[in-house]
């Protein structure tokens, strides 16, 4: 291989490396715009409500216990009884827990950015069955119980949109702010009617909760048997948490999902015992499930993914130029390579700026069309042939189409990319199978001399 060919390949490689500079700058712009968008979404959530997690209801029974200890008076060598009082709480989870929710989503805009909020109309019901003597096996007479209450943990109480009333048979009891339980965090509570602590009677409960939030809604399945049903008009749910729905249906009009769990799967009863001593109890609160209202068209994520293929895209385009040189004995100057490379880099800047206003799909179509037309017009003159220029433009348009397929099929991106590269390698090998690489430089030099004469 002669020096002229080595020089051309070296110049092409150097141009590719230099084009990394504007590509890195554009990638930085994508990151900055994404951070700005995330900041605006956080501001919208801060002025409305954050993601929501519903925990409870949990029944809380405060008590005061008389503790008797025998002490020794060393001076008199006599024993005496010391009586003290300690405070504590008993926690009980419902025997049955059911939640039936209808969720509607809406968009809130600030400038060119939008945040998706949800409004969940929830019907929460269940049944408590308490053990005899509230499960106390030691001296029951040492306990004095205070009024019991139900506590419900709500991640962001600003999202409560209705006046909460607990339904106990014919009674309607108003909730008060605050869960009164540290490890439940924010929430509400409601005082319960007095009952016989030795033989507590089971009771059914129900209440309606309209809750607003952003991004996701999660539920902690607190019942020994729990059933949660959610239905929404949002067609792009992402089911999150420790349990996937037992049944789900996702259509273009929305989704419906049904979860069903028991204590055997959640182990919440055992975890609750640890919460009596731990004021945080992250393990209890983390055993949740729910749905995330994701936006499938995240222009910043797709732009970031697109620019990761930029180096490969430019290398393939330069390889096409180089094949025209060696197969058609055409001379293409490195400056012409550079101008085409800059046009390819500008595609990503156009894609980012347009996608913020008209959506990613249409922005991709317009940006790719503009770059193909510009490069096609230029290449027709560089290659001195309209047919060659149109052929090059068709190949470039096909590359843009394949790139869009890679961006859309995230799960199959590696497979599609591998097949693409293998196919292009095969094409190059077929086209150059009879090429005399040792004679490439000589033919080009001869071609240049004839052009001068």
TrEMBL record:
Q: Name one Pfam family in it.
A: CreD
Q: Which residues form a coiled coil?
A: none
Asked if Transmembrane helix is a keyword of the record, the answer is yes
- GO cellular component terms? plasma membrane
Q: Among its keywords, does the record have Transmembrane?
A: yes
UniProt KW keywords: Membrane, Transmembrane, Transmembrane helix
Q: Transmembrane region positions? A: 309-327, 334-352, 358-379, 386-406, 412-432
User: Out of the domains of life, which is the source?
Assistant: Bacteria
What InterPro entries does its record include?
A: Uncharacterised_IM_CreD
For this protein, the record's PANTHER family field holds: INNER MEMBRANE PROTEIN CRED
The protein's name is Inner membrane protein
Q: Which gene encodes it?
A: creD
């Amino acid at each position: 291989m002669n020096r002229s060919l080595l020089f051309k390949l070296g110049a092409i490689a150097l141009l590719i490396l230099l084009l990394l500079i504007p590509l890195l700058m554009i990638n930085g712009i994508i990151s900055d715009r994404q951070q700005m968008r995330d900041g605006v979404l956080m501001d919208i959530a801060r002025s409305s409500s954050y993601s929501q997690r519903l925990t409870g209801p949990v029944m809380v029974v405060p008590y005061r216990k008389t503790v008797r200890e025998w002490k020794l008076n060393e001076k008199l060598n006599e024993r005496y009884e010391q009586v003290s009082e300690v405070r504590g709480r008993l926690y009980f989870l419902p025997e049955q827990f059911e939640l039936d929710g209808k969720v509607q989503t809406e968009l809130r805009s600030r400038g060119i950015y939008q945040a998706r909020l949800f409004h969940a109309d929830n019907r929460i019901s269940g049944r408590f069955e308490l053990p005899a003597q509230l499960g106390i096996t030691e001296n029951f007479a040492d306990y004095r119980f205070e009024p019991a209450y139900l506590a419900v943990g709500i991640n962001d109480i600003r999202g409560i949109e209705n006046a909460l009333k607990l339904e106990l048979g014919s009674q309607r009891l108003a909730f008060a702010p605050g869960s009164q339980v540290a490890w439940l965090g924010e929430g509400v509570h409601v005082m319960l009617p007095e009952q016989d602590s030795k033989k507590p009677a089971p009771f059914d409960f129900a209440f309606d909760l309209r809750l607003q939030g952003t991004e996701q809604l999660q539920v902690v399945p607190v019942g020994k048997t729990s059933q949660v049903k959610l239905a929404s008009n949002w067609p792009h749910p992402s089911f999150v948490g420790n349990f996937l729905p037992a049944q789900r249906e996702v259509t273009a009009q929305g989704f419906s999902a049904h979860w069903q769990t028991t204590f055997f799967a959640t182990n919440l009863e055992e975890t609750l015992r640890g919460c009596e001593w731990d004021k945080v109890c992250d393990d209890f609160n983390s055993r949740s499930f729910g749905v995330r209202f994701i936006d499938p068209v995240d222009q910043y994520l797709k732009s970031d993914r697109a620019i990761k293929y930029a180096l490969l895209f430019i290398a393939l385009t330069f390889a096409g130029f180089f094949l025209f040189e060696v197969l058609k004995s055409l001379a293409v100057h490195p400056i012409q390579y550079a101008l085409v490379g800059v046009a390819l880099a500008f595609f990503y800047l156009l894609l980012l700026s347009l996608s913020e206003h008209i959506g990613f799909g249409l922005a991709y179509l317009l940006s790719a069309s503009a770059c193909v037309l510009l490069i096609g017009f230029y290449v027709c003159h560089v290659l001195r042939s309209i047919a060659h220029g149109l052929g090059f433009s068709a190949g470039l348009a096909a590359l843009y189409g394949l790139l869009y397929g890679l961006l859309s099929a995230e799960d199959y991106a590696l497979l599609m990319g591998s097949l693409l590269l293998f196919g292009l390698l095969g094409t190059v090998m077929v086209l150059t199978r009879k090429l005399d690489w040792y004679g490439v430089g000589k033919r080009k030099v001869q071609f240049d001399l004839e052009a001068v004469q």
